[in-house]
């Protein structure tokens, strides 16, 4: 029986599985945002039926609103996508607060629906971007940071889950 050279198998195997970890990361992010997360509700389910009035309410004094949390999480997803494209993430020491926590201006129902839609489409863009990457890219340093893309992508999942929990508590405090 003729067997391909070992290098061929390794090369073929490497090509076939070159983004296995990136696909796993994208899948974990998709679960946290849209799917069946093992820990509880996804952000899609948490944000379902939240009204503009509820999103701008402040049931806990000095805490962020649901709306503020949504735009904050989205800003970091945009930073992440831009970093993949080579744009440095702004340094903490010089980042204006408004860049990290954008001000919510228009609080209409339409503006809320646009904010939620943008939140999900930006996350989808990140998921699709991650899936296009070679696993080797995970070990490269993020522009503007000292850590690698693996750390950043895992951080995006953790960030979404962390603030998703806050949003769920705020939503519960409103009922």
Fold and architecture overview:
- By secondary structure, this protein is mainly α.
- The protein has a single domain, classed as Up-down Bundle (Four Helix Bundle (Hemerythrin (Met), subunit A)), CATH 1.20.120.450.
- It is 61% helix and 0% strand.
- It has eight helices and no strands.
- The longest helix has 25 residues, at 149-173.
- The chain is globular, with a radius of gyration of 19 Å.
- 23% of the residues are buried.
**Cα distance spanning the termini:** 70 Å
Number of helices: 8
| Uncertain ranges | 1-15
CATH fold naming: Four Helix Bundle (Hemerythrin (Met), subunit A)
Number of strands: 0
Strand content: under 5%
Supply the CATH class.
Answer: Mainly Alpha
Category from helices, strands and their pairing: mainly alpha
CATH superfamily (homologous) name: dinb family like domain
CA gyration radius, whole angstroms: 19 Å
Principal-axis shape equals globular
Whole-number total of structural domains: 1
CATH architecture: Up-down Bundle
From the structure above, extract its key features:
175 residues; mainly alpha; Four Helix Bundle (Hemerythrin (Met), subunit A); 8 helices; 0% strand
Helix and strand arrangement:
Blueprint: H1 6-16, H2 20-33, H3 43-47, H4 52-56, H5 66-84, H6 97-100, H7 109-132, H8 149-173
Helix pairs in contact: 2-7, 2-8, 5-7, 5-8
Q: Could you provide a short overview of the structure?
A:
With 175 residues, the protein is an all-alpha fold. The protein has helices at residues 6-16, 20-33, 43-47, 52-56, 66-84, 97-100, 109-132, 149-173.
């Amino acid at each position: 029986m003729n067997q391909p050279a070992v290098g061929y198998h390794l090369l073929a195997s490497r090509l076939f599985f070159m983004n296995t970890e990136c696909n796993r990361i994208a899948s974990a992010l998709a679960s946290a945002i849209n799917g069946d997360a093992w820990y509880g509700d996804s952000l899609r389910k948490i944000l379902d039926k939240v009204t503009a009035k509820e999103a701008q309410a402040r049931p806990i004094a000095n805490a962020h609103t649901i709306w503020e949390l949504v735009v904050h999480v989205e800003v970091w997803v945009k930073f992440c996508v831009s970093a993949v494209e080579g744009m440095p993430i702004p340094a903490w020491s010089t980042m204006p607060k408004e860049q990290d926590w954008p001000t919510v201006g228009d609080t209409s129902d339409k503006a809320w629906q646009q904010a939620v839609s943008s939140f999900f489409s930006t996350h989808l863009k990140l998921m699709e971007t991650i899936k296009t990457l070679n696993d080797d890219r995970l070990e490269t340093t993020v522009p503007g940071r000292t850590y690698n893309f693996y750390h950043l992508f895992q951080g995006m999942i953790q960030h979404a889950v962390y603030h998703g929990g806050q949003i769920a508590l705020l939503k519960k405090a409103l009922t």
